[in-house]
């Protein structure tokens, strides 16, 4: 939803070209909501969702920890005011020299999912704490994250034993149920797997202490989503079911759920056309597309809410596309998007729920279109 502060900024500043506007008040509210929903879990904001310095500084001041995917993100979190003890190097695919740099900066918590990654951490960050990522099926997620990251639970046991043998501290287990997860019970089976890994390690004299329950918390696009409180209750119930009174330390890594609904992209209609005289589906081209920040429209996985000044008038099905000379730069075609019939060239549109994974996906000037501008208010 577009806040009054965002509307006022766009109206008074009139920024040229497509841009993202993020309302920090919404980010603050989201952080407090997560803290209330899961009061016993440490919040590690997923920096990759939106690394704007203003967002990181706000979250650092509120007491957030940070999940970082690279040395650059680690340095951003430190610059924003976070101590190294509040940072997790959560990427399972790291160069050894990057691990060494993170360790030199004071980071002591690392994700792994293979024996080979354990060996790199042992060489570059001796004595560090590690947690092993376990595969999940991602069922119910609009942006699944399975296969590339993690290993099966049986291998996670071997990986953590190996880490212990190499002098690392085998600290825990992590998983990610998939981004934009809409199933409340999605964490249940993953926590069951985590408990089995805990038990297997205990049989070998290694006591794990932490479960990183990842992100997956959604933001609202076109469909309603459960509340953070509902997710908190479901996760807490699953934790008690599988761990009883011996609850581990827990981490959550909200990214989309922290900043998604705080941002709105202002865009403009560049062209409307049809492919033949009797075409019943109109093409609407915007000045932003997949390469300008809307990469998550790939396979039409994320369907954003789009607001225009002509809403309430008659609509027709439209194919929405971006401005670049690339045939892949089409946002919605398999399921056309209903847009006002009167929508025309030069009209402004607001793409809501775009605070996460937009500026970071618009890192290069493809076709000469500059990366997405960002304003944080």
UniProtKB/TrEMBL annotation:
Which InterPro entries does the record match to this protein? De-COase2_CS (IPR022657), De-COase2_N (IPR022644), De-COase2_pyr-phos_BS (IPR022653), Orn_de-COase (IPR002433)
Q: Where is the Orn/DAP/Arg decarboxylase 2 N-terminal domain?
A: 26-259
- What CDD domains would the database entry show? PLPDE_III_ODC
Q: Do the record's keywords include Hydrolase?
A: no
Which cofactor is essential here?
A: pyridoxal 5'-phosphate
Name the domain of life this protein comes from. Answer: Bacteria
Q: Which keywords has UniProt assigned to this entry? A: Lyase, Pyridoxal phosphate
Pfam families in the record: Orn_Arg_deC_N
| PANTHER family hit by this protein | ARGININE/DIAMINOPIMELATE/ORNITHINE DECARBOXYLASE, ORNITHINE DECARBOXYLASE 1-RELATED
Give the family this protein belongs to, as stated in its UniProt record: Belongs to the Orn/Lys/Arg decarboxylase class-II family.
- State the name under which the record lists this protein: Ornithine/lysine decarboxylase
What is the species of this protein?
Pseudohoeflea coraliihabitans
Which gene does this sequence derive from? odc2
């Amino acid at each position: 939803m577009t806040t009054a502060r965002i509307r006022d900024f766009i109206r008074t500043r009139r920024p040229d070209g497509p841009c993202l506007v993020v309302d920090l008040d919404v980010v603050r509210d989201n952080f407090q909501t997560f803290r209330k929903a899961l009061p016993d879990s440490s919040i590690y904001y997923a920096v990759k969702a939106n690394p704007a310095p203003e967002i990181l500084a706000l979250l650092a001041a509120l007491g957030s920890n940070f999940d970082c995917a690279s040395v650059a993100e680690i340095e951003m979190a430190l610059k924003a005011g976070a101590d190294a003890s509040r940072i997790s190097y959560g990427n399972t695919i790291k160069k050894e020299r990057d691990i060494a740099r993170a360790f030199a900066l004071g980071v002591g918590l690392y994700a792994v999912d293979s024996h080979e990654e354990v060996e790199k951490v042992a060489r570059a960050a001796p004595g560090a704490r590690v947690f092993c990522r376990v595969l999940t099926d991602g069922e119910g997620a609009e942006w699944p994250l399975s296969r590339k990251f993690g290993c099966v639970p049986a291998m996670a046991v071997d990986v953590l034993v190996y880490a212990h043998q190499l002098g690392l501290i085998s600290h825990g287990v992590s998983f990610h149920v998939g981004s934009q997860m809409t199933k409340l019970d999605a964490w249940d089976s993953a926590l069951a797997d985590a408990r089995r890994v805990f038990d297997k390690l205990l049989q070998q004299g290694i006591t794990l202490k932490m479960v990183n329950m990842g992100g997956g918390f959604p933001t609202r696009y076109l469909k309603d989503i459960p509340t953070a409180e509902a997710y908190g209750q479901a996760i807490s119930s699953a934790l008690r079911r599988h761990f009883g009174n011996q609850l581990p330390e827990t981490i959550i890594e909200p990214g989309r759920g922290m900043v998604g609904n705080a941002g709105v992209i202002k865009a403009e209609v560049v062209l409307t056309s049809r492919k033949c005289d009797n075409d019943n589906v109109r093409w609407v081209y915007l000045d932003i597309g997949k390469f300008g920040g809307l990469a998550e429209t790939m396979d039409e996985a994320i369907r954003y809410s789009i607001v225009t000044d002509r809403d309430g008038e008659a609509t027709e099905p439209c194919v929405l596309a971006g401005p670049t000379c690339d045939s892949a730069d089409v946002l919605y075609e398999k399921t056309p998007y209903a847009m006002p019939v009167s929508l025309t060239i030069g009209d402004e549109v607001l793409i809501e729920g775009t605070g996460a994974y937009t500026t970071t996906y618009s890192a290069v000037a493809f076709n000469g279109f500059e990366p997405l501008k960002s304003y944080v208010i």
